[in-house]
Design brief:
By secondary structure, the chain is α/β, with parallel strands linked by helices. The chain has 11 helices and 8 strands. Helix content is 38%, strand content 15%. The longest helix has 14 residues, at 97-110.
Protein backbone atom coordinates (compact mmCIF):
# COMPACT_ATOMS: atom_id res chain seq x y z
CA UNK A 1 0.00 0.00 0.00
CA UNK A 2 1.10 3.54 -0.79
CA UNK A 3 -0.15 5.98 1.87
CA UNK A 4 0.31 9.76 1.90
CA UNK A 5 -1.10 11.40 5.04
CA UNK A 6 -0.52 15.13 4.45
CA UNK A 7 -1.87 17.04 1.43
CA UNK A 8 -3.51 20.40 0.74
CA UNK A 9 -6.14 21.59 -1.74
CA UNK A 10 -7.58 24.93 -2.81
CA UNK A 11 -9.68 24.78 0.38
CA UNK A 12 -6.53 26.18 2.03
CA UNK A 13 -3.29 26.88 0.16
CA UNK A 14 -2.91 24.10 -2.42
CA UNK A 15 -3.39 24.58 -6.16
CA UNK A 16 -5.46 21.42 -6.85
CA UNK A 17 -9.16 21.48 -6.11
CA UNK A 18 -10.20 18.67 -3.73
CA UNK A 19 -11.58 16.72 -6.70
CA UNK A 20 -8.40 17.23 -8.75
CA UNK A 21 -6.33 16.18 -5.75
CA UNK A 22 -8.20 12.88 -5.47
CA UNK A 23 -7.75 12.15 -9.18
CA UNK A 24 -4.06 13.09 -9.04
CA UNK A 25 -3.54 10.92 -5.94
CA UNK A 26 -4.99 7.93 -7.75
CA UNK A 27 -2.90 8.67 -10.84
CA UNK A 28 0.21 8.82 -8.62
CA UNK A 29 -0.49 5.24 -7.50
CA UNK A 30 -1.65 6.05 -3.97
CA UNK A 31 -3.98 3.68 -2.16
CA UNK A 32 -4.68 6.09 0.74
CA UNK A 33 -4.51 9.89 0.87
CA UNK A 34 -5.29 12.30 3.70
CA UNK A 35 -6.73 15.74 2.93
CA UNK A 36 -5.37 18.01 5.67
CA UNK A 37 -6.09 21.60 4.70
CA UNK A 38 -5.07 24.32 7.14
CA UNK A 39 -7.69 24.68 9.89
CA UNK A 40 -10.41 23.67 7.44
CA UNK A 41 -12.58 20.69 6.52
CA UNK A 42 -14.31 22.58 3.71
CA UNK A 43 -12.81 20.42 0.97
CA UNK A 44 -13.86 17.06 2.37
CA UNK A 45 -17.30 16.82 0.73
CA UNK A 46 -15.94 17.55 -2.75
CA UNK A 47 -13.08 15.10 -2.24
CA UNK A 48 -15.44 12.33 -1.14
CA UNK A 49 -17.72 12.91 -4.13
CA UNK A 50 -14.75 12.63 -6.52
CA UNK A 51 -13.00 9.63 -4.93
CA UNK A 52 -11.97 7.14 -7.63
CA UNK A 53 -12.50 3.45 -7.01
CA UNK A 54 -9.50 1.99 -5.22
CA UNK A 55 -8.46 5.17 -3.41
CA UNK A 56 -9.31 5.69 0.27
CA UNK A 57 -9.63 9.16 1.80
CA UNK A 58 -8.57 9.99 5.35
CA UNK A 59 -10.31 13.19 6.42
CA UNK A 60 -8.25 15.59 8.49
CA UNK A 61 -6.90 19.09 9.00
CA UNK A 62 -3.59 20.77 9.83
CA UNK A 63 -4.12 22.88 12.95
CA UNK A 64 -2.13 26.09 13.49
CA UNK A 65 -0.54 26.16 16.96
CA UNK A 66 1.93 28.30 18.89
CA UNK A 67 3.95 27.70 22.03
CA UNK A 68 6.48 30.07 23.58
CA UNK A 69 6.57 32.21 20.45
CA UNK A 70 7.24 29.23 18.17
CA UNK A 71 4.69 28.30 15.50
CA UNK A 72 3.95 24.62 14.93
CA UNK A 73 1.35 22.49 13.19
CA UNK A 74 -0.65 19.52 14.43
CA UNK A 75 -2.10 17.11 11.90
CA UNK A 76 -5.51 15.92 13.09
CA UNK A 77 -6.99 12.80 11.53
CA UNK A 78 -10.45 11.24 11.53
CA UNK A 79 -12.05 13.57 14.08
CA UNK A 80 -15.74 14.43 14.21
CA UNK A 81 -15.92 17.65 12.12
CA UNK A 82 -19.12 18.71 13.86
CA UNK A 83 -17.73 18.52 17.41
CA UNK A 84 -18.53 22.10 18.52
CA UNK A 85 -15.47 23.01 20.60
CA UNK A 86 -12.92 22.01 17.95
CA UNK A 87 -15.08 23.52 15.19
CA UNK A 88 -15.18 26.83 17.07
CA UNK A 89 -11.39 26.96 17.42
CA UNK A 90 -10.89 26.19 13.72
CA UNK A 91 -13.25 29.02 12.88
CA UNK A 92 -11.35 31.46 15.11
CA UNK A 93 -8.08 30.61 13.36
CA UNK A 94 -9.64 30.92 9.90
CA UNK A 95 -11.29 34.25 10.73
CA UNK A 96 -7.91 35.70 11.71
CA UNK A 97 -6.24 34.71 8.45
CA UNK A 98 -7.44 37.67 6.37
CA UNK A 99 -6.42 40.49 8.76
CA UNK A 100 -3.11 38.71 9.34
CA UNK A 101 -2.42 38.42 5.60
CA UNK A 102 -3.38 42.07 5.11
CA UNK A 103 -0.89 43.05 7.81
CA UNK A 104 1.86 41.13 6.01
CA UNK A 105 0.98 42.85 2.73
CA UNK A 106 1.31 46.24 4.45
CA UNK A 107 4.69 45.22 5.90
CA UNK A 108 5.90 44.17 2.46
CA UNK A 109 4.73 47.47 0.98
CA UNK A 110 6.69 49.30 3.69
CA UNK A 111 9.74 47.31 2.59
CA UNK A 112 9.28 48.58 -0.96
CA UNK A 113 7.57 45.51 -2.46
CA UNK A 114 4.78 46.56 -4.88
CA UNK A 115 2.36 43.85 -3.73
CA UNK A 116 -1.36 44.62 -3.48
CA UNK A 117 -4.05 42.91 -1.41
CA UNK A 118 -6.12 42.37 -4.57
CA UNK A 119 -3.28 40.30 -6.03
CA UNK A 120 -3.05 38.07 -2.93
CA UNK A 121 -6.85 37.69 -2.78
CA UNK A 122 -6.89 36.63 -6.44
CA UNK A 123 -4.23 33.98 -5.80
CA UNK A 124 -6.04 32.65 -2.72
CA UNK A 125 -9.39 32.44 -4.51
CA UNK A 126 -11.84 30.54 -2.31
CA UNK A 127 -9.07 29.08 -0.14
CA UNK A 128 -8.09 30.10 3.38
CA UNK A 129 -5.55 32.84 2.67
CA UNK A 130 -2.08 32.24 4.08
CA UNK A 131 1.62 32.85 3.62
CA UNK A 132 1.95 30.58 0.55
CA UNK A 133 -0.46 32.86 -1.32
CA UNK A 134 1.62 35.92 -0.40
CA UNK A 135 4.76 34.01 -1.35
CA UNK A 136 3.20 33.25 -4.75
CA UNK A 137 2.58 36.96 -5.20
CA UNK A 138 6.27 37.61 -4.50
CA UNK A 139 7.16 35.07 -7.18
CA UNK A 140 4.80 36.76 -9.65
CA UNK A 141 6.46 40.11 -8.90
CA UNK A 142 9.95 38.66 -9.38
CA UNK A 143 10.96 39.42 -5.79
CA UNK A 144 11.88 35.77 -5.18
CA UNK A 145 12.38 32.86 -7.57
CA UNK A 146 10.30 30.23 -5.75
CA UNK A 147 7.65 30.06 -3.03
CA UNK A 148 10.19 28.42 -0.71
CA UNK A 149 12.54 31.37 -1.20
CA UNK A 150 9.93 33.63 0.40
CA UNK A 151 10.03 31.67 3.64
CA UNK A 152 13.23 33.27 4.93
CA UNK A 153 13.89 35.82 7.69
CA UNK A 154 14.18 38.42 4.94
CA UNK A 155 10.51 37.92 4.06
CA UNK A 156 7.84 35.57 5.50
CA UNK A 157 9.55 33.08 7.82
CA UNK A 158 8.48 33.02 11.47
CA UNK A 159 9.85 36.26 12.91
CA UNK A 160 10.78 37.53 9.45
CA UNK A 161 10.61 41.16 8.36
CA UNK A 162 7.10 40.79 6.91
CA UNK A 163 5.80 38.15 9.32
CA UNK A 164 2.62 38.75 11.34
CA UNK A 165 1.09 36.55 14.01
CA UNK A 166 -2.45 35.18 13.99
CA UNK A 167 -4.77 33.40 16.41
CA UNK A 168 -3.32 29.95 17.02
CA UNK A 169 -4.07 27.07 19.33
CA UNK A 170 -1.97 26.02 22.27
CA UNK A 171 -0.64 22.61 21.15
CA UNK A 172 -1.70 20.91 24.36
CA UNK A 173 -5.20 22.28 23.85
CA UNK A 174 -5.15 21.10 20.24
CA UNK A 175 -4.26 17.57 21.34
CA UNK A 176 -7.05 17.64 23.91
CA UNK A 177 -9.64 18.99 21.48
CA UNK A 178 -8.81 16.48 18.75
CA UNK A 179 -8.88 13.58 21.20
CA UNK A 180 -12.26 14.78 22.55
CA UNK A 181 -13.53 14.80 18.95
CA UNK A 182 -12.41 11.19 18.48
CA UNK A 183 -9.38 12.04 16.37
CA UNK A 184 -5.67 11.27 16.22
CA UNK A 185 -2.86 13.87 16.37
CA UNK A 186 0.52 13.83 14.63
CA UNK A 187 3.06 16.64 15.05
CA UNK A 188 3.79 17.88 11.52
CA UNK A 189 7.42 18.35 10.35
CA UNK A 190 8.62 18.91 13.97
CA UNK A 191 12.28 19.63 13.13
CA UNK A 192 11.87 21.62 9.90
CA UNK A 193 14.49 24.17 10.93
CA UNK A 194 14.55 25.76 7.47
CA UNK A 195 11.06 27.11 8.24
CA UNK A 196 12.27 28.90 11.37
CA UNK A 197 12.59 28.15 15.06
CA UNK A 198 11.34 24.75 16.23
CA UNK A 199 10.30 23.52 19.66
CA UNK A 200 12.88 21.50 21.66
CA UNK A 201 12.68 17.73 21.84
CA UNK A 202 11.71 18.03 25.51
CA UNK A 203 8.47 19.65 24.35
CA UNK A 204 7.74 16.70 22.08
CA UNK A 205 8.05 14.46 25.13
CA UNK A 206 5.54 16.68 26.92
CA UNK A 207 3.18 16.44 23.96
CA UNK A 208 3.49 12.66 24.08
CA UNK A 209 2.62 12.65 27.77
CA UNK A 210 -0.44 14.79 26.95
CA UNK A 211 -1.74 12.29 24.40
CA UNK A 212 0.06 13.07 21.11
CA UNK A 213 -0.16 10.00 18.88
CA UNK A 214 2.72 10.49 16.46
CA UNK A 215 5.32 12.64 14.73
CA UNK A 216 5.86 13.19 11.03
CA UNK A 217 9.32 11.80 10.33
CA UNK A 218 9.69 11.38 6.55
CA UNK A 219 9.12 14.87 5.13
CA UNK A 220 10.81 17.01 2.50
CA UNK A 221 12.04 19.48 5.15
CA UNK A 222 13.86 16.78 7.17
CA UNK A 223 17.25 15.61 5.96
CA UNK A 224 18.32 12.01 6.53
CA UNK A 225 20.11 12.58 9.87
CA UNK A 226 17.03 14.45 11.14
CA UNK A 227 14.76 11.59 10.08
CA UNK A 228 16.95 9.09 11.88
CA UNK A 229 16.92 11.28 14.99
CA UNK A 230 13.13 11.59 14.89
CA UNK A 231 12.65 7.87 14.30
CA UNK A 232 14.68 7.18 17.43
CA UNK A 233 12.70 9.77 19.37
CA UNK A 234 9.40 8.23 18.25
CA UNK A 235 10.55 4.82 19.44
CA UNK A 236 11.75 6.25 22.76
CA UNK A 237 8.45 8.06 23.39
CA UNK A 238 6.14 5.38 22.03
CA UNK A 239 4.92 7.59 19.18
CA UNK A 240 3.81 6.59 15.70
CA UNK A 241 6.26 7.65 12.95
CA UNK A 242 4.55 8.81 9.77
CA UNK A 243 5.71 9.96 6.35
CA UNK A 244 3.93 12.38 4.03
CA UNK A 245 4.48 14.60 1.03
CA UNK A 246 2.87 17.81 2.39
CA UNK A 247 1.73 18.24 -1.21
CA UNK A 248 0.53 21.71 -2.26
CA UNK A 249 0.17 21.13 -6.01
CA UNK A 250 2.30 23.41 -8.19
CA UNK A 251 3.09 25.65 -5.20
CA UNK A 252 5.83 23.19 -4.10
CA UNK A 253 8.12 20.84 -5.98
CA UNK A 254 7.31 17.76 -3.86
CA UNK A 255 5.26 15.05 -5.59
CA UNK A 256 2.24 13.20 -4.23
CA UNK A 257 3.48 10.04 -2.54
CA UNK A 258 7.11 11.18 -2.50
CA UNK A 259 7.12 10.30 1.22
CA UNK A 260 4.72 7.72 2.61
CA UNK A 261 3.50 6.06 5.82
CA UNK A 262 3.97 2.40 6.72
CA UNK A 263 0.70 0.44 6.39
CA UNK A 264 1.00 -0.80 9.98
CA UNK A 265 1.22 2.78 11.25
CA UNK A 266 -1.78 3.74 9.14
CA UNK A 267 -3.69 0.78 10.57
CA UNK A 268 -2.92 1.95 14.11
CA UNK A 269 -4.13 5.47 13.30
CA UNK A 270 -7.44 4.13 12.03
CA UNK A 271 -7.75 1.81 15.03
CA UNK A 272 -7.37 4.70 17.46
CA UNK A 273 -9.83 7.01 15.70
CA UNK A 274 -13.48 7.06 16.75
CA UNK A 275 -14.69 10.41 15.39
CA UNK A 276 -14.72 9.43 11.71
CA UNK A 277 -13.62 6.58 9.49
CA UNK A 278 -11.64 6.36 6.23
CA UNK A 279 -13.81 6.70 3.12
CA UNK A 280 -13.31 4.10 0.41
CA UNK A 281 -13.64 5.45 -3.11
CA UNK A 282 -16.38 4.32 -5.45
CA UNK A 283 -17.03 7.52 -7.39
CA UNK A 284 -15.40 6.59 -10.66
CA UNK A 285 -12.73 4.57 -12.44
CA UNK A 286 -9.16 4.74 -11.24
CA UNK A 287 -6.91 6.54 -13.75
CA UNK A 288 -4.86 4.18 -15.90
Amino acid sequence: MHIDLHTHSTASDGTDTPAELMRNAAAAGLDVVALTDHDSVRGHAEAIAALPEGLTLVTGAELSCRMGGVGLHMLAYLFDPDEPELARERELVRDDRVPRAQTMVRKLQALGVPVEWEQVARIAGEGSVGRPHIATALVELGVVETVSDAFTPEWLANGGRAYAEKHELDPFEAIRLVKAAGGVTVFAHPLAVKRGEVVPEASIARFAAAGLDGIEVDHMDHDEPTRARLRGLAKELGLLATGSSDYHGSRKTVRLGEYTTDPEIYGEITRRATGAFPVPGAGGPRPA
